[in-house]
């Protein structure tokens, strides 16, 4: 058994392997064998991590060391084990087939970490959607204020109660820049007044500028968002509003309870006269 074990380990060493990752645990004998020959080994590696490493470094996951060829091995420029906080990470750099990267998030509280992860995920998905769709609009409330301006102008051409509906929708679009101002600690009334004036002058891409606490041409400042995301948000909000407006009556059937101890009254006790002692 010892000769078979050392034979398999020697095959890895002779093939030029420097890093060994295994989904199963690695024994002390194999660990010492690798350490004496300046080889790194890690056991109990999750299968997902093995596949990600394979996609980045190339090669293939093997079930045996027999018939090992250079094409089966992955490659990277540097490999290092780094202590980050209370955990140790194995970092592969300069992977030959890597098309992605790993971002390590650190924070003092779990809630902060979750919020950071959600924000980062949203940003990555926006960039992904922007790459797949070539249509862009300026962010920072610029497109919302422009839509609000057009709806107000269109509302003046309509007589009757429909004008009130369109005007209300125009006010709803101003919630986006107003909320951006409140989140940044600005005066929403002042900023919205400036935005209305700018869009009335034909400055289509005027929006909230967080850096200068003022308004700016957000398209020129590369504050963009995909037009598809904005259109989907408008459609979803409009459908939700129409659904709520279509509800004309709600029916509530409270549960019958005993007035004495507030226990539910049985079906046979309803409508029966109480016996007097």
Description:
It is elongated and about 95 Å long. 45% of the residues lie in helices and 12% in strands. It has helices at residues 2-14, 28-36, 47-57, 110-132, 142-155, 162-173, 175-184, 188-200, 227-246; strands at 19-21, 40-42, 78-84, 87-93, 136-138, 206-209, 214-217, 224-226. β3 and β4 form a beta hairpin. It is built from 9 helices and 8 strands. A two-stranded parallel sheet has the order 1-2. It is of the alpha+beta class.
Poorly predicted ranges? none
If helices are DSSP runs of H or I spanning 4 or more residues, what is the number of helices?
A: 9
Number of strands: 8
Question: Helix share of residues?
Answer: 40-55%
| C-alpha geometry | elongated
How big a fraction of the residues is strand? 5-15%
Based on helices, strands and strand pairing, what is the structural class? alpha+beta
User: What oligomerization state is this entry in?
Assistant: single chain
Gyration radius, in Å: 32 Å
Largest sheet: 2 strands, parallel
- State the separation between the terminal residues, measured CA to CA: 93 Å
SSE arrangement, N to C: HEHEHEEHEHHHHEEEH
Mean pLDDT: 86
Q: What does this entry show, briefly?
A:
The chain is of the alpha+beta class. It contains 9 helices and 8 strands.
Give the arrangement of secondary structure elements.
Layout: H1 2-14, E1 19-21, H2 28-36, E2 40-42, H3 47-57, E3 78-84, E4 87-93, H4 110-132, E5 136-138, H5 142-155, H6 162-173, H7 175-184, H8 188-200, E6 206-209, E7 214-217, E8 224-226, H9 227-246
Parallel strand pairs: 1-2
Antiparallel strand pairs: 3-4, 5-8, 6-7
Helix pairs in contact: 5-6, 5-8, 7-8
């Amino acid at each position: 058994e010892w000769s078979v074990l050392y034979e398999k380990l020697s095959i890895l060493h002779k093939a030029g392997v420097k890093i060994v990752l295994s989904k199963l645990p690695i024994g002390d004998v194999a660990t010492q064998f690798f350490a004496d020959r300046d080889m790194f080994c890690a056991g109990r590696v999750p299968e997902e991590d093995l596949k990600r490493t394979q996609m980045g470094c190339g090669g293939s996951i093997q079930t045996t060391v027999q018939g090992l060829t250079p094409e089966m091995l992955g490659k990277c420029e540097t490999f290092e084990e780094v202590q980050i906080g209370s955990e140790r990470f194995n970092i592969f750099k300069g992977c030959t087939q890597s098309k992605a990267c790993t971002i390590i998030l650190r924070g003092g509280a779990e809630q902060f970490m979750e919020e950071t992860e959600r924000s980062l995920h949203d940003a990555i998905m926006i960039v992904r959607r922007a790459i797949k769709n070539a249509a862009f609009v300026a962010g920072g409330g610029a497109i919302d204020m422009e839509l609000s301006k057009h709806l107000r102008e269109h509302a003046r051409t309509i007589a009757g109660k429909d004008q009130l509906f369109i005007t209300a929708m125009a006010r709803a679009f101003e919630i986006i820049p107003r909320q951006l101002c409140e989140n940044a600690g600005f005066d929403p009334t002042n900023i919205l007044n400036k935005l209305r004036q700018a869009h009335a002058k034909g400055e289509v891409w005027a929006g909230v500028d967080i850096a200068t606490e003022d308004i700016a041409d957000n398209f020129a400042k590369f504050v963009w968002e995909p037009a598809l995301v904005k259109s989907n948000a408008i459609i979803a909000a409009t459908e939700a509003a129409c659904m709520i407006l279509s509800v004309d009556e709600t029916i509530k059937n409270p549960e019958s309870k005993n007035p004495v101890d507030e226990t539910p009254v049985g079906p046979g006790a309803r409508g029966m006269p109480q016996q007097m002692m």
